Amino acid sequence: MAPAAWGQSCEPRIERVAAAQALPDGGRPAEDKWEPVTLPDLWSTRWPDHDGAAWYRIDWRRGCGGTSAPAGEQARQQARQQAGEQAGQGEPLALAIDYLNMAGAVFVNNDLLWTDRNLAEPLSRSWNMPRYLIVPPSVLRPDVNTVFIKVVGNRLDGAGLGRVQIGSVAVVEPLYSHQVLLRRTLPGVNLVISMTLGCFFLVLWLMRRSERSYGWYALTSFAWLMFASNAVAATPWPFSTSEGWSRWLMVALLVYSCAFCIFLCRFGGQRFARAEAVLWISAGLAAAAVVFVGRDGLATVLAVVFFGCVLLFMGSCLRFIARALRTRQPEHLLLAVCVLSFVVAGVHDVLMVMRVLPDGLAYTTVSAPLIMVGMSAILAWSFTRNLRRIERFNVELEERVALTRDELTQTLKREHTLELTNVRLGERLQLAHDLHDGLGGSLVRSIALVEQSAHALESNQYLSMFKSLRDDLRQVIDSSSSASARMAATPAEWIAPIRHRFNRIFEELNVAGRWQVPAQWPCDMSAKQLLGLTRFLEEALTNVIKHSRARSFEVTLLKLADDQFSLSIEDDGVGFDVPLVASAVAGIGLRSMHARIVRIGGTLNIASSPGQTRLEARVPLMSTEAAG
């Protein structure tokens, strides 16, 4: 470990770095148990069967009190140093640790400086989390200081200690920030990219099931997300032990390797049914072995499965590169470049895990986000090319059927003209009903407003009523032909004018109303249907005003389960005798409503009793009569 400079004149000098197994109770061992080590250190190479806790010690001397100066000069330097610290002028000392595998605590001269939350299972996961600590001057000694670091881990996870830097804040903090970038920021970006791309290509595959490579790429991204979460996870949750977390990670790596292999096959336009079946069966057996093997054999199983995944991944990449060189397709060649980058980064990181290469920067951490973005861009480009082919095909198809389409259009136009003519004639025959249901209802509302008003109406109020009557008369005239009626795009747009006209009188009468309509029409509505429902609703609300003496009412439009939709009006009025009123001369309103609903292919149901009256029109969703 190279010591870092501390200011210009005070440079900590590392005199000793040693390690020792902890005592059974976790305490520090005796002085003769310490062994010299070099950081970063992996204790499984020295104690292959050791699980639990170990201690590291770093003995260092502050450079301000160097032994090369005369005794009097040393005393003066120490006095100046202590005076500066007491005056708050000394530069603070910092301590940075690349990682602790798996959890640990830091002491300076027997004073606790920092500790992980959990030093027993479930262990805190500090294996990829840099630590930065400010050393209080009060805990420092004038001569030799010792940093004790307790590390708790197991051989499955490669327990040990990373590099430790001691020096001034100005020197140590940039080194710590660099480690945070490599060990926390970039893995976090990798996870965000994996999740985003996984969701994007999953949706793309759901929209276009024929593009199977997108589905496999989505599965690959999600599996990598699960495996790479190990780089940022601070606890083994939801597992109660680090061992359970290790099993989970290996299963995620299995899924990732298999999914990536099949993704490359699909993108290359290949399918090997039997080989893929054997692959998934083998992966299932391997996953079962990882999950159910005992602790004694877990290390061997994890190593075998890990290197099996590595071989599968590398073999799939090399095979796709060979296929890309044969097909010479642009998207295959571009993806082969990304895959080759994966191979280079993967070989380097595997050699680093095997300790063939020294501990350092994992290439996958830096390259994975860039490579995944590049692969996604290639997939998107391929998708765009397919869309362009489809568009060109559609253009050719349109040109070939243009004559037939024009002829069909003319035929439909003639039929539509005849239909509109018939509707126009039918609406003119029903002008009497329109006047009764439309203008008649407006007159009733105006009369009720004058009668129910607690004080004399002003002239502008009368003028408003006359204008409303004029508008209703115009509406009757304009809507006498369903062809000239403007189609409402949504139920809310259709019911808004009716609700506006009637709410004024209901507010004067102190009648509470509730209007329930869906956001969209349950089916395509024709002008004739809308006109029939409008007149039915206006007449029903007019009857509420004229006869019901209700205190509340409810208008509901909804889709029924039997391919019908329903428009109902319900009030809590006095009710009436349905057969008697329907047969009476004064029952023209009910007969008009019934006739209108029948003309649009529906049925009208009326139920009335004291306290509840309900009129419901049911119309088929795809009724030929309704469309006419």
Describe the structure.
The protein is an alpha+beta fold and 628 residues long. The protein contains 16 helices and 17 strands. It has helices at residues 71-86, 169-207, 212-228, 242-267, 273-292, 295-327, 330-353, 363-400, 402-429, 431-452, 459-478, 491-508, 527-548, 578-583, 588-599, 624-627, and strands at 13-21, 35-36, 41-42, 52-61, 93-97, 100-101, 103-108, 111-115, 131-135, 144-153, 160-161, 164-168, 512-516, 552-559, 564-571, 603-609, 612-620.
Tell me the total number of β-strands.
Answer: 17
DSSP summary: helix tally: 16
How would you state the average pLDDT, rounded?
A: 81
| Unreliable parts | 1-9, 65-77, 83-89, 481-485, 624-628
**Fraction in helix:** 40-55%
Estimate the strand proportion.
15-25%
Strand order of the largest sheet: 2-1-4-10-7-8
Question: Brief description of this entry?
Answer:
The chain has 628 residues and is an alpha+beta fold.
Topology:
Layout: E1 13-21, E2 35-36, E3 41-42, E4 52-61, H1 71-86, E5 93-97, E6 100-101, E7 103-108, E8 111-115, E9 131-135, E10 144-153, E11 160-161, E12 164-168, H2 169-207, H3 212-228, H4 242-267, H5 273-292, H6 295-327, H7 330-353, H8 363-400, H9 402-429, H10 431-452, H11 459-478, H12 491-508, E13 512-516, H13 527-548, E14 552-559, E15 564-571, H14 578-583, H15 588-599, E16 603-609, E17 612-620, H16 624-627
Parallel strand pairs: 13-14
Antiparallel strand pairs: 1-2, 1-4, 3-11, 4-10, 5-9, 5-12, 6-11, 7-8, 7-10, 14-15, 15-17, 16-17
Helix pairs in contact: 2-3, 2-8, 3-4, 4-5, 4-6, 6-7, 7-8, 10-11, 10-13, 12-13, 13-15
